[in-house]
Amino acid sequence: MKNNNLLLVIGFLMIFSSLSAQNNDTEAIENILESQAESWSNHDLEGFMQGYWKSDELTYYSGGKITKGWQTTLDNYKKGYPNKEATGVLNFQIDEITKINEESYYVMGQYFLQREVGDAHGTFMIIFKKINGEWKIIADSSC
Question: Distances in Å between the alpha carbon of 13 and those of 9, 10, 18, 102?
Fold first, then answer.
């Protein structure tokens, strides 16, 4: 009986520990997205890109086109959003954060841009991976 109780306690502790770690992960991911929205809204595209994996393997998919690389993604943002009027104010609505495994999550949500040149709204799905102890976006699909 004592062994059963001990196993039960250990099981509860493992479940609690796992849920606590997942809550910490989702909070860290939400903080990254919040920081990105703030950087974007300040027309700090380099700051916005800090949430992304700085690698040639970063994958971005939008408008039926796949592009690769952190620098390519930054350059595309700079071309498409050359000034504060174009970037405007960014807000995210996070609809779901789902754990894939211990080292990765996917996030589905919506973005809202309020801009002088016309508002924009769309959806996104991004994949976060823990790299060197930090959560980074390794893939982004936005439309």
Answer: 6, 5, 8, 17
pLDDT digits (tens, 9 = 90+) for 40-63: 999 999 999 999 999 999 999 999
Enter the pTM of the model. 0.84
Question: Residue 131 burial by CB count (10 A; 0-12/13-18/19+): exposed, middle or buried?
Answer: middle
Own/partner contacts of 27-36, CB < 8 Å, gap of 24 or more, are 28/135, 29/97, 29/105, 29/107, 29/128, 29/135, 30/94, 30/97, 32/128, 32/135, 32/137, 33/92, 33/94, 33/107, 34/92, 36/90, 36/92
142 touches 123 (CB < 8 A): yes
User: What's 100's domain CATH number?
Assistant: 3.10.450.50
How many domains, the chain?
Answer: 1
The Cβ-side half-sphere exposure at 14, using a 13 Å CA radius, reads 6
- Residue span of the structural domain in which 26 resides: 2-142
Residues 101-119, mean pLDDT to the nearest whole number: 97
Q: Please name every residue paired with 20 in a beta bridge, in sequence order, or none if there are none.
A: none
